[in-house]
């Protein structure tokens, strides 16, 4: 493999501009991804009138398609000759408009008047076009790009923190704005959707996504320039063999799956927890506000502590704090919602800290892979990690319903028995606590990239590239 780092006098040093640009890149992603995650099923079922079973089948089938397109996009990034504006950054330029248009096309309200078969065809084509082709075409390069913006582990931690801040703020903004536009109250006082407003907000979010991607493209620079020689490129099978021997990647995937399971299950159970156990749904908004606040409060500490003590070391402690908070809630059987929210904020702070630096773990894994194999495979490694997260999200997303059925939850009942309400509380606290504890154990005992090892890998790659000049 041949390549070199661009000299410092050729490009500006890494700084706040790169961090803000990378944050806006995730804003751009989330204007389509979070909006789809939160409201696409609502559009399909409430506006188009398609059954939830068909929608669920489509979402699951798309994950199988993603197995090929995600890895395929990673391979394209790793094997194509880089453009003048970068190996990954160039894809932000190419795909910004297509992904925005594809997102808009999923929410055309006039499709509600089509035949049922036509609706299903429309859903399948537009959803796969957006998620498996266009979104993959920009998200895989965007995520992989963090490893070449800077070779410094501290800089990469900062990028991860700003990316997570962007995701958190985007989620807050989208979930505040969208309901105000999508829902209205009819004459009987019922909450109903406004079909045409889905289209309007999708177009607005699409335009905003393009703006955010443009800021990302303009602000971020690829400083680590590594171009693989054609004779050094390996087959996909050879690449997979090397990657699936990567202990750091496999343990990170395991930790990420447990993290997603804890987060998604906790979110899905909170509605039932406050409705049936605390019997106060008005506190849900308060809970969401303080939960986001706790996660954002972790941001200033994430870069500083991970740089001082190491990502593995500080991240393991933070996720243990989250586990301890939820296990404490489980054993105390708290009846005061105020005390519960306070402890939950502690849990969200610990989880938020870990989540702020999780993307920096990926860049360390990419370096680790290159040290082991002498092959630079940013796109392929990130694509496999990204796909595993999609599978985890899909599985965890449906777990809440299975859990409710298993504990005897009566969906149509005005109220639940005390036994069922207590089981809801137990699931909402014990399950996240055990998952967070699992993340701690994996990161502590299986994940090999300590602060010292990350620094050693970074020094080794700098030495190799210096020898190739």
TrEMBL record:
It comes from the Bacteria. Keywords: Membrane, Transmembrane, Transmembrane helix. GO terms for cellular component: plasma membrane. GO terms for molecular function: symporter activity. One of its GO terms (biological process) is carbohydrate transport. The chain crosses the membrane at residues 20-41, 47-65, 91-110, 116-138, 166-185, 197-220, 248-265, 285-305, 317-334, 340-362, 394-412, 424-447. The keyword Membrane applies. Pfam families: MFS_2. NCBIfam families: gph. This is Glycoside/pentoside/hexuronide:cation symporter, GPH family.
């Amino acid at each position: 493999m041949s390549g070199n780092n661009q000299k410092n006098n050729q490009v500006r040093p890494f700084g706040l501009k790169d961090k803000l640009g990378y944050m806006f890149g995730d804003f751009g992603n989330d204007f389509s991804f979070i909006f789809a995650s939160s409201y696409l099923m609502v559009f399909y079922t409430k506006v188009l009138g398609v059954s939830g079973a068909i929608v669920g089948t489509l979402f699951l089938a798309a994950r199988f398609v993603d197995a090929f397109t995600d890895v395929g996009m990673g391979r394209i990034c790793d094997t194509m000759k880089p453009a003048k504006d970068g190996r990954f950054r160039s894809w932000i330029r190419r795909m910004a408009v297509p992904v925005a248009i594809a997102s808009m096309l999923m929410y055309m309200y006039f499709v509600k008047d089509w035949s049922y078969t036509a609706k299903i065809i429309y859903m399948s084509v537009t959803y796969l076009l957006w998620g498996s082709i266009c979104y993959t075409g920009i998200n895989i390069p965007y995520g992989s790009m963090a490893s070449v913006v800077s070779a410094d582990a501290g800089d990469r931690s900062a990028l991860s923190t700003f990316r997570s801040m962007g995701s958190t703020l985007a989620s807050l903004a989208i979930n505040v704005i969208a309901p105000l536009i999508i829902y209205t109250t009819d004459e009987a006082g019922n909450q109903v959707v406004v079909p045409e407003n889905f289209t309007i907000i999708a177009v607005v979010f699409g335009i905003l996504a393009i703006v955010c991607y443009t800021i990302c493209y303009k602000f971020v620079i690829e400083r680590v320039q590594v171009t693989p020689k054609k004779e050094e490129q390996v087959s996909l099978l050879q690449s997979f063999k090397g990657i699936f021997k990567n202990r750091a990647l496999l343990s990170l995937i395991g930790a990420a799956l447990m993290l997603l399971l804890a987060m998604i299950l906790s979110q899905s159970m909170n509605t039932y927890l406050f409705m049936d156990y605390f019997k106060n749904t008005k506190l849900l908004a308060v809970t969401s506000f303080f939960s986001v606040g706790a996660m954002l409060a972790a941001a200033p500490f994430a870069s500083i502590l991970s740089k001082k003590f190491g990502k593995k070391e500080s991240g393991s402690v933070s996720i243990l704090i989250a586990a301890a908070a939820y296990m404490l809630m489980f054993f105390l059987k708290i009846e005061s919602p105020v005390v519960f929210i306070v402890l939950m904020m502690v849990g969200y702070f610990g989880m938020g800290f870990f989540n702020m630096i999780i993307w920096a773990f990926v860049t360390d894994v990419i370096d680790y892979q290159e040290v082991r194999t002498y092959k630079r495979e940013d796109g392929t490694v990130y694509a496999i990690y990204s796909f595993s997260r999609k599978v985890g999200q899909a599985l965890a997303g449906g777990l809440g319903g299975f859990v409710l059925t298993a504990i005897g939850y009566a969906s149509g009942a005005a109220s639940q028995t005390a036994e069922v309400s207590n089981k809801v509380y137990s699931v909402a606290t014990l399950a996240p606590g055990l998952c967070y504890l699992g993340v701690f154990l994996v990161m502590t005992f299986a994940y090999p990239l300590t602060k010292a090892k990350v620094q050693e890998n970074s020094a080794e790659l700098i030495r190799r590239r210096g020898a190739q000049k």
